[in-house]
Amino acid sequence: xxxxxxxxxxxxxLNGAALAETTKTSNYAEHPEAGAVIEALGxxxxxTDRVRxxxxxxxxxxxxxxxxxxxxxxxLTWAEYSRIFLTxxxxxxxxxxxxxxxxxxxxxxxxxxxxxxxxxxxxxxxxSYGRNKGRYRVLDALxxxxxxxxxxxxxxxxxxxxxxxxxxxxHIDASTITGSYAGAMGFPQFIPTSYQAYAVDFDGDDVIxxxxxxxxxxxxxxxxxxxxxxxxxxxxxxxxxxxxDDYDALVxxxxxxxxxxxxxxxxxxxxxxxxxxxxxxxxxxxxxxxxSVAMLDLIGDDGHEFWxxxxxxxxxxxxxxSELYAMAVLQLSHRIADALEAxxx
Length: 345
What we know:
By secondary structure, the chain is of the alpha+beta class. Among the domains are: 5-70 and 133-199, Helicase, Ruva Protein, domain 3 (Orthogonal Bundle), CATH 1.10.8.350; 237-342, Orthogonal Bundle (Lysozyme). It is 51% helix and 9% strand. The chain contains 18 helices and seven strands. It has helices spanning 5-9, 16-21, 34-43, 48-57, 62-68, 72-75, 78-85, 88-100, 102-112, 116-127, 138-148, 153-170, 192-198, 214-227, 247-251, 261-266, 311-319, 323-342, and strands at residues 136-137, 178-179, 237-242, 259-260, 269-271, 292-300, 303-309. Strands 4-6-7-3-5 form a five-stranded antiparallel β-sheet. It has a two-stranded antiparallel ribbon with strand order 1-2. Helix 3 (34-43) packs parallel to helix 12 and helix 9 (102-112) packs parallel to helix 14. Residues 38-333 form the Transglycosylase SLT domain. It comes from Alloalcanivorax venustensis ISO4.
């Protein structure tokens, strides 16, 4: 699914009653809210007759409404979610992609200060390195959600306007381009407004093409993370030990860092040290006591997993507002980094 996308969707569920109340229409150009979309594009110099024709051609997709009502990030445990994304196959695909685009990844890392393994993990989780860019026509997805999904209708109508704008700016054909059920496109699954705000021309051909250009996708993911204030060198997450029940108050604060390591310790929560701690040498903190963190309680294969996470974890959630998504990206990035190091790549 994708960039800000699942982010914006996480936690917004459509129950059966709400779904039943949506208005079915055979012609979205005649929907009561379509006039505002057409008018907005007309004010931007677009051919309103063509816009109206494409809206009339857009097809309501009930499977999209069903999918958005039960996002995996809200219905699965960490153990279940991780098995989808943390596979040997996805790691090997990441290594292959890294080998094929080594120079581009190095250039993106140098320009944006975002590690190549994080860039690789995002593209791997989103589309398996371009193997699964989505099967829905983006026009259908955005029209369905913009006109028949009341909880986020205004958001998706904004995406619909941006899709038409991208025809002019990114050489995209709004009538044919395909993507996810939420209208995300290309290798990194950017929704239209994210495409406009963060995508970059990284292969120098004067076109920003996230669908066909791996280089543009790599540069755009790095650009996105830099814009959301990724901090080079800051560890993302550490396993934690807990003593007592006071930790629960920290978990309830959510995944945005809002207390310090010192405060966590007062609540009986201590991050695993990188100095010889046996719990997890890959996920550890040796940071100042005033470092801002958040706490997670995930249900893994062996039960509760306690984590302390930094501002960089929060940056990952700006791509998708889910702690499960961010943890999958983090752990896939570690596995890819280990595989690249083992092969001296």
